[in-house]
From TrEMBL, chain A:
Bias type Basic and acidic residues, positions: 203-237, 254-265
Biased composition (Acidic residues): 60-80
Identification of the protein by name: Uncharacterized protein
Species assigned in the record: Mollisia scopiformis (Conifer needle endophyte fungus)
GO biological process: maturation of SSU-rRNA from tricistronic rRNA transcript (SSU-rRNA, 5.8S rRNA, LSU-rRNA)
Biased composition (Gly residues): 238-247
Ranges of biased composition (kind: Basic residues): 1-10
GO cellular component: nucleolus
Residue span of region Disordered: 1-31, 60-81, 106-135, 200-285
Source species, domain of life: Eukaryota
InterPro entries reported in the protein's UniProt record: FSAF1-like, Ribosomal_biogenesis_FAF1-like
Automatic annotation (TrEMBL), chain B:
GO cellular component: 90S preribosome; small-subunit processome
Keywords associated with the record: Nucleus, Ribosome biogenesis
Pfam families: RTC, RTC_insert
Matching SUPFAM superfamilies: EPT/RTPC-like
One of the GO biological process terms: endonucleolytic cleavage to generate mature 5'-end of SSU-rRNA from (SSU-rRNA, 5.8S rRNA, LSU-rRNA)
Protein name per its UniProtKB record: 18S rRNA biogenesis protein
Length: 285, 347
């Protein structure tokens, strides 16, 4: 049943399609003529163009396609009266965007107040109108620009390209440092020693691995930061012994401490160095 | 009461039972209601939700006497004092457990309770729970708790009742269960503001124009995209008329009901969705509301619900007046309880 039906439809379609195809052929011819004219003009000015064989196959394919289309037309003209309505609603549309504050105010357990506009929506300090010529607005914009320049590298991180969350904290840290803060707000001050050790060990391990891999691959890295030698004077507090280590009720003096107290030992002292010196001095006199 | 035999006001049928009982309590007149569903061959007498309401009245009043005839078709009620929720031990909240057979939304209880609450001795805190609490709107004509909170409770402010002391906490949402019966929600009403004499109301001005439209789209136990679809459809109708439309979408899990010990074990109930819209007018205190739930047997698309709700809201607006049909009993009762000044109200 189906093939006969299809055949009939195709004929009908061909009949119906005849006139447009003719018109399209004519258009093609006119286009060809135009190309011919251009070609002749070009050849008159330059050298003759190589002749490319016309791609016949494309036209045939086109014909086939048209036939297929006509097939479809044939099927659909069977029941013309039924109009199929397809309603497509996009659920991805932007739905009511209640601001967070408004939503909070509306969805509390209390009845919503009749005029929430005044108290709930704070006027945002960051919003400056573009065409505000006043000095204050200019200063604000200037500050915003400075900050953008100083902190724009935070926005480059692929993980979080907004100035939210971690990046916001980092930005605050940068600003504090610019104002002269010594302590980092990102560094945790108090934590168990084992955690701290673990963190430091991990950091050094990472750095070492990075350097090793770079060395193996022949990449030259920046110079390793020299560890600051904390060999200077330890703060010993007030009232304690100025030397040695006090533990278990005893003051332990290391050899180094004793050496420090005694001062440099002179080998000449056994040989009467002082006297000798004096003597030498006398001799000099 | 040692007073002479009380004069009963006599009523028949169960029509507006809650309002009759509330007015009786407020005025102190005993009532006698007869022929309650006396013609019904299958369920004569008081329905489960009406019994629950009587229990609730009993727990927030002191000295009230109720007599129900053997068949439940006759009720005699001698009101007592409205004490609020101090008398109960164990917290300041009166628990009101609704049975599974309840077909009315919890707003059927809330609205009359709110009418009594301003005249109570102590704050009224009631928690509705049990397998029969339906927080959504129902097909029996009750509004959703969202409408109660956003459209009815603000009406009290005009009577000198402090709005910030009223609270309606929706601890668990639920739609009507299978066959429109039962839910499993938990709702807590806290009415912490009492007045002796409500202020005189003057609301005979023009209601003004609709300023903004707010609403809540709730879906319980079904996909949250239903909310978005309802909101979209409603906005499609309303957006050309009012630009300021914000509808919050609320998704909750369906409540678990039943015991582990019972045959079926625990099961989820009260699945469904619905939309509640309110339109605030430029005139102070004028709020129109509309409420459409999905029927408990299902088969309606969220788009239909959204559209119907929007059209219902438009119909409410076209009816005009300062008070809608839902809020009228509340406002009229409070006006009647006010001082001798003449309050005015346009309905």
């Amino acid at each position: 049943m189906a093939p006969t039906l299809g055949k009939r439809k195709r004929e009908v379609a061909n009949l119906s399609n005849k006139s447009p195809r003719i018109s399209s052929d004519e258009r093609e011819e006119t286009e060809l003529d135009a190309q011919e004219i251009f070609r002749r003009h070009f050849e008159a000015q330059f050298q003759p163009l190589p002749i490319i064989p016309k791609p016949k196959t494309v036209v045939e394919e086109l014909d086939d396609e048209q036939d297929e289309q006509s097939d479809w037309d044939g099927i659909s003209d069977g029941d013309e009266n039924v109009v199929q309505v397809v309603e497509h609603t996009d659920t991805q549309l932007r739905i009511s965007a209640m601001s967070k504050e408004e939503l909070k105010a509306f969805m509390t357990s209390k009845p919503p107040s009749s005029n929430p506009g005044q108290s709930l929506i704070r006027d945002k300090p960051g919003l400056v109108e573009d065409d505000d010529p006043s000095e204050a607005a200019n200063l604000k914009k200037d500050l915003a620009l400075q900050r953008l320049l100083a902190e724009s590298h935070l926005l480059e991180s692929s993980k979080n390209p907004t100035l939210n969350g971690t990046n916001r904290h980092k930005a605050t840290e940068l600003r504090l440092q610019a104002l002269g803060s010594k302590m980092s707000i990102l560094k945790q001050e108090k934590m168990p020693m084992s955690h701290r050790r673990g963190i430091i060990a991990k950091q050094t391990e990472k750095e070492e691995k990075r350097r090793r891999e770079a060395r193996e691959n022949g990449i030259i890295l920046e110079k390793a930061k020299m560890k600051k030698n904390t060999d200077g004077k330890r703060d010993r507090g007030v009232g304690g012994p100025g030397i040695g280590k006090f533990s278990g009720g005893t003051l332990n003096l290391s050899k180094k401490d004793i050496f420090n107290i005694e001062g440099p030992r002179r080998s000449s002292s056994t040989r009467g160095g002082r006297g000798g010196g004096r003597g030498r001095g006398k001799r000099g006199r | 009461m040692a007073a002479p035999a009380p004069e009963y006001l006599r009523f028949t049928t169960h029509k507006s039972l809650t309002h009759r009982l509330v007015l009786s309590t407020l005025t102190g007149r005993p009532v006698h209601i007869s022929q309650i569903r006396s013609s019904s061959p299958t369920n004569p007498g008081l329905a489960p939700h009406e019994i629950s309401f009587l229990r609730l009245l009993d727990s927030i009043t002191n000295g009230s006497v109720m007599q129900i005839s053997y068949t439940g078709t006759t009720l005699t009620y001698i009101p007592g004092l409205i004490t609020g929720s101090v008398s109960t031990g164990g917290g300041d909240v009166v628990r009101c457990v609704l049975p599974e057979t309840c077909r009315r939304g919890v707003s059927w209880f809330l609205l009359p309770l709110c009418m009594l609450a301003p005249f109570s001795k102590a704050p009224i805190n009631v928690r509705f729970e049990g397998d029969g609490v339906i927080t959504s709107a129902t097909e029996t004509g009750d509004v959703s708790v969202d409408t109660v909170r956003t459209a009815i409770l603000p009406l009290y402010e005009a009577f000198g009742i402090i709005g910030s002391k009223l609270e309606l906490r929706i601890l668990q949402r639920s739609c009507a269960g299978v066959g429109g019966k039962g839910g499993g929600g938990v709702v807590e009403l806290r009415f912490g503001s009492q007045v002796r004499l409500p202020k005189t109301l003057h609301m005979n001005r023009s209601p003004g124009r609709v300023k903004r439209i707010r609403g809540v789209a709730y879906s319980t136990g079904v996909s949250a995209s239903n909310s978005a679809r309802m909101i979209n459809a409603a906005r499609g109708v309303l957006n050309p008329l009012v630009p300021d439309i914000h509808v919050a979408s609320q998704y909750d899990q369906a409540p678990l009901v039943g015991d582990k010990g019972s045959a079926g074990g625990k099961k989820r109930t009260g699945v469904g969705f619905g939309l509640s819209l309110i339109a605030e007018c430029s005139s102070e205190g004028v709020i129109y509301s509309a409420d459409v739930p999905a029927p408990s047997q299902g088969g309606v698309t969220p788009e239909d619900i959204g559209k119907r709700c929007a059209y219902q809201l438009l119909e409410m607006v076209s009816q005009g007046g300062c008070i809608t049909r839902v809020g009228a009993p509340t406002v009229l009762t409070l006006m009647a309880m006010g001082s001798e000044d003449v309050g005015r109200e346009e309905i």
